[in-house]
Amino acid sequence: MGRVADEVVLSDEERTFLEAQVLQQKAARSLSDRCRMMLLCAEGLQSKGVGAQLGMHEHTVGKWRRRFVKDRIEGLTDEYRPGRPRAVSDAQVARVIERTLNTTPKDATHWSIRSMVAETGLSHTTIRRIWTAFGLRLHRSETFKLSTDPLFVDKVQDIVGLYMLPPNRAIVLCVDEKSQIQKLAREQPVLPMAPGVAERRTHTYFRHGTPSLFAALDIATGAVIGKCYKRHRATEFLDFLKRIDTAMPAGLDVHIVMDSYATHKTPKIKAWLARRAHWHVHFTPTSASWINQVERWIAELIRKQLQRGVHRSTAELEADLAAFIEAHNENPKPFKWVKSADEILASVKRVCQRTQQNLCREL
């Protein structure tokens, strides 16, 4: 007589779980197959018959039958497989991180994978994995500048308050200028992109003047008012303010956010603003242009139009800028300001603390 198969008797909870795993589409295929085996075994079928129905060997069915009878549902899961032992210890990882953060190589300002491999004797793959796991990207370097404005906190709270809770019956405009836009024409024709070949252009160019673009962004709609001028003076800025005043609906207050550039604070500008009680000016802190939303739109202008544009005359550049503004205003989308003033100030505080700690460490 052959070996008698273990009898599979299911409780109501076990049957419900097994049937759910069979019907669930996101369940692992291996687990659903084992659940099918146990449901058929519970009907009294032998392992050979179950294997014939499911296209499996009877020894496989017998293995999972025995494991289910012994450990029930937990017996259907895969056992822990330790795999290959670690070749790099925690102490070695710690030494790599400590050396990366606190030291520099003799011939460079920062470590590279090759130099760290030569220093530690570990493989290229190991160093790369360690740096990736701890988020260390030594090839990147970012810049920052802390504002020294004594009214920084008050100005941030004022401007962010305008963004997140604009006043009723008022328009909030972010105003700035992109000064001295270079009209660059390449010395040789640009070679267009082709399959497998990037667009190519010469690094040498001709300049054809530098006009300035004044822009005002409506934070509620995302629409932009813009105009080019040959020069960047208080006279041109006053003309642009008059252009904005003409475009504004009657009966609404106008709040403008702008930086403290000298052309924005001349006596003529102050006198013009003083005669208009419905105009309210909010100056950004010094060295904090990031808080002016029109800067984000100007960055988009540079990326889409100016960075790779070729302009042979002032008229050609101004026409392209006007076309860009017109196309933008056909379907404007406002920028969504999400950080509160408290979150911004907390972030600046953390940067100040880190800067102070690094300064004390150097001293």
What distinguishing features does this structure have?
alpha/beta; Nucleotidyltransferase, domain 5; 3 domains; 11% strand
Query: What is the helix fraction of residues, given as a range?
Result: 40-55%
Strand-residue proportion: 5-15%
**Class from secondary-structure proportions:** alpha/beta
Largest sheet: 5 strands, mixed
CATH superfamily of the largest domain: Ribonuclease H-like superfamily/Ribonuclease H
Q: Sum up the overall morphology in one term.
A: elongated
Plain-language structure description:
The N and C termini lie far apart (88 Å). Helix 10 links the parallel strand 6 (253-258) and strand 7 (279-283). The chain is elongated. It has helices at 12-23, 29-42, 47-54, 58-71, 90-102, 113-120, 124-133, 152-164, 234-247, 267-274, 294-306, 314-330, 341-362, and strands spanning 170-178, 184-186, 205-207, 212-218, 224-229, 253-258, 279-283. The strands form two sheets. A five-stranded mixed sheet has the order 5-4-1-6-7, sandwiched between helices. Strands 2-3 form a two-stranded antiparallel sheet. The chain has 13 helices and seven strands.
Write the layout of secondary structure elements.
Elements: H1 12-23, H2 29-42, H3 47-54, H4 58-71, H5 90-102, H6 113-120, H7 124-133, H8 152-164, E1 170-178, E2 184-186, E3 205-207, E4 212-218, E5 224-229, H9 234-247, E6 253-258, H10 267-274, E7 279-283, H11 294-306, H12 314-330, H13 341-362
Parallel strand pairs: 1-6, 6-7
Antiparallel strand pairs: 1-4, 2-3, 4-5
Helix pairs in contact: 1-2, 2-3, 2-4, 3-4, 8-13
